[in-house]
Amino acid sequence: MLDDGAPLFTQIAERLADQIADGALAEGERVPSTNELAAYHRINPATAAKGINVLTDDGLLEKRRGIGMFVAAGARERLLAERRKRFAERYVQPLVAEAHRLEFDADEPVTLIREASHTEEGIRP
């Protein structure tokens, strides 16, 4: 179900974006309609439409007149590129700055990451 905190339309947009990024919704595939989303999440159809419009405005969804909304060509690649950029800004840049303050050599953070990845499931070395 939807979480507390973020506006409902934002949560709808994020869930659909996650499905596109994960490949659960492929390019050219039809996404649930505003009425389907509204019924499933028990929200106002206008709220669901606002979430879909966020993704349409971002170029991730496209409307096909009379048949619905579909995942746009290249949507997954654009999402992954944006998420990689955010990942670098949120995690890698602060890590590099802290490693510099601690006077690590260039290989030490990489070694630590590799060691940590061996202890975490689902992360490839």
Automatic annotation (TrEMBL):
InterPro entries: Tscrpt_reg_HTH_GntR (IPR000524), WH-like_DNA-bd_sf (IPR036388), WH_DNA-bd_sf (IPR036390). Keywords: DNA-binding, Transcription, Transcription regulation. The keyword Transcription applies. It holds the Pfam family GntR. PROSITE patterns: HTH_GNTR. The keyword Transcription regulation applies. Residues 6-74 form the HTH gntR-type domain. It comes from the Bacteria. PANTHER family: GNTR-FAMILY TRANSCRIPTIONAL REGULATOR, HTH-TYPE TRANSCRIPTIONAL REPRESSOR YTRA. This is GntR family transcriptional regulator. It comes from Protofrankia coriariae. The lineage of its organism: Bacteria, Bacillati, Actinomycetota, Actinomycetes, Frankiales.
